[in-house]
Design goal:
The protein is mainly beta. Helix content is about 10%, strand content about 25%. The chain is globular.
């Protein structure tokens, strides 16, 4: 599991954002140069990243991705409610995008993925910690999952893919190292080995700081909202 594909895609810099919004210069929609820097919609600047070798198109439309749909066995871990707010980037800014399919997939507390075979495990036929939701009228897709574990060569992360009509966007979400240190030191996460930290992860270095989740405590676990815009 330590050979995720190399990063793809690029980070939208400020010039590219303005181009995506159909602006010829710094003025126009955002006014002066000084105000433009702070007025760019937060949903725009999100880099694409590698899909990796573990995507399985399960077509599981569900919000709670923790259980296996066949056995009903629920993967243990710290609960995480992950909320996506998907928008469309246009010349008028960002407008909410209903009807897009948001897939997420991740490893379990011990760093294993379902539905694949590798040197660590053979989980073919299993579908835990995978699923998709269709964004509602407010552009929202919400999942109940767990804080992911880790495996050699990668920092802690969750994969996601957004599909709309005949287009798709794929990237990854990352977590604060200090929070991971606290969570992963306890069962069912604790295990031998040295975890790769964000700064040492080659995929994180390709714009991962713009894909960090801002987690807030929620019950026995955490919750996070992630805003993202698609340039369609």
């Amino acid at each position: 599991m330590d050979n995720d594909d190399k990063p793809i895609g690029t980070i939208l810099n400020r010039r590219k954002v303005l181009a995506a919004l159909g602006l010829a210069g710094v003025g126009g929609l955002f006014g002066s140069k000084a105000s433009a820097q702070n007025a760019l919609p937060s949903c725009i600047v999100r880099p694409a990243q590698t899909e990796g070798p573990f995507f399985v198109d399960t077509q599981l439309n569900r919000s709670d991705i923790r259980p296996d749909p066949v056995t009903g066995v629920v993967k243990p871990g710290v609960p995480l409610v992950l909320r996506f707010v998907v928008s469309r980037v246009s010349s008028s800014g960002c407008t909410l995008l209903p009807g897009s399919m948001v897939d997420i997939w991740q490893c379990d507390a011990q760093g294993i993925y379902s539905g694949v075979q590798d040197r660590f495990a053979d989980t073919r036929g299993q579908k835990w910690l995978r699923g998709h939701q269709i964004t509602n009228a407010q552009g929202v897709a919400e999942f109940t999952t767990i804080y992911p574990g880790w495996y050699p060569g990668r920092t802690v992360h969750i994969h996601f893919k957004i599909r709309y009509q005949n287009r798709d966007f794929t990237s990854q979400l990352f977590f604060d190292d200090a929070l991971s240190d606290r969570i992963l030191a306890n069962p069912p996460y604790a295990k031998a080995g040295t975890r790769t930290r964000n700064a040492n992860d080659g995929i994180y270095r390709n714009g991962g700081s713009q894909l960090l989740l801002n987690l807030t405590p929620s019950g026995a676990g955490y919750a996070a909202t992630f805003d993202i815009g698609l340039n369609l």
